[in-house]
C-alpha cells in the first residue's frame, strides 16, 4: 500500500516536471518566433474591425472575394494618401517643433508673468510660482527639443517600419478574410457534437464583444483627434496635426489614455500662446468629457451589446484587477459574460 503511494507521488512529480519543461520549451519557441506570432495576433485584431464590413457587403449581394477586394482597395487609398500627405506633414511639424522648443523655453518667464497677470485679473486664486521653476522647466524643454530633432530620423524610420508591418498584417488578413469561415468550420468540426452550440455561441460572443470594443475605441479616438485638430486650427495654433495624431493614438489606451491625450495639445498650445492655451484646455477638457462619458459609453454599449452602466463598471473592475490591461480587456470580458449568462438564461427558460 505504501509502495503504491510512493509510486503515485513519483508519477505526479514526473508529470509535473514534464509539464513545466514543455511550458518552458513552448515559451522559448514563442520568444524565438515572437515577431511572426505578433503579426498573426495583430491580424486577428484587425479582423474584428474589417470582417463585419466584409460580412455586411456580402449580405448586400456582393461576392466575398469582391467585398474583401473593395475593402482593401479603400484601405490602400487611405494608406497611400496618409503616406503622401499626412506623414510628411507630421514629420515636418515634429522637426519644426523640436527646433522651436529652445526658443520657446527662453520666452517662458514672460509667458508665465502674462498668464499670472491674466489669472489675477480674472480673480482666479492660482499662484504659478508654487508649481513653476524657470531653471527646471527651461532645461527640460530645451532637452526635449534637442531629443526630438536628434531622433526625427529614428521616428521616421519607426513610422516606415510600422507601415511595412501594417502592410504585412493586411496581406495576411486578406487571405484569412477570404477563407476565414472555412477555417472556422474546420475548427468547429473538432468540437464534440454535444458542445457545438455552446462553442459557436462563445465564438460569436467573443467576436461581437471584443470586436465591438475595438471598433468603439477606434471610433472614440478618431472623434477626439478630429475635434482636437479642429479646435487648434480654429485657434490659429501651429503643430495641430502632430498634436491631434498624438491625442488620437493616446485615446486608444483605456482609462489613462484620455488623461494623457489632453496633455500634448494643451502643452503645445501653451508654449505658443498661454492665454489661448487656457481656452484650448477648457474646450478640450469639456469635449473630452462628452466624448468619453457620453458618446463613449453609448458607443461601447451599442458596439459590445451591454448597457453603458455595465461598460463603466467593467472598466472600473478591470482597472482594479489588472491595471491598464484590465481596463482594456474588461469591457469585452464583461460583454462575453453577459452574453453567456443570457444564453444560459434563455436556454433554461426554453427548457422549462
Structure, explained:
- The model has no long low-confidence stretch (mean pLDDT 72).
- The chain has eleven helices and no strands.
- The longest helix has 58 residues.
- It has two domains: 154 residues, no CATH class; 158 residues.
- It has 352 residues and is an all-alpha fold.
Key attributes of the depicted protein:
single chain; 352 residues; mainly alpha; 2 domains; 89% helix
Q: Tell me, rounded to a whole number, the average pLDDT.
A: 72
Number of domain units: 2
Total beta strand runs? 0
**In DSSP terms, counting alpha (H) and pi (I) runs of 4 or more, how many helices?**
11
SSE run:
HHHHHHHHHHH
N/C terminus separation = 50 Å
User: Beta-sheet strand percentage?
Assistant: under 5%
Measured on Cα atoms, how large is the radius of gyration? 26 Å
Q: Give a quick account of the main beta sheet: strands, pairing sense, barrel closure.
A: none
The parts where pLDDT drops under 50 for at least 5 residues are none
Level of helix content? over 70%
Overall outline: globular
The assigned structural class equals mainly alpha
Question: Brief overview, please?
Answer:
By secondary structure, the chain is mainly α.
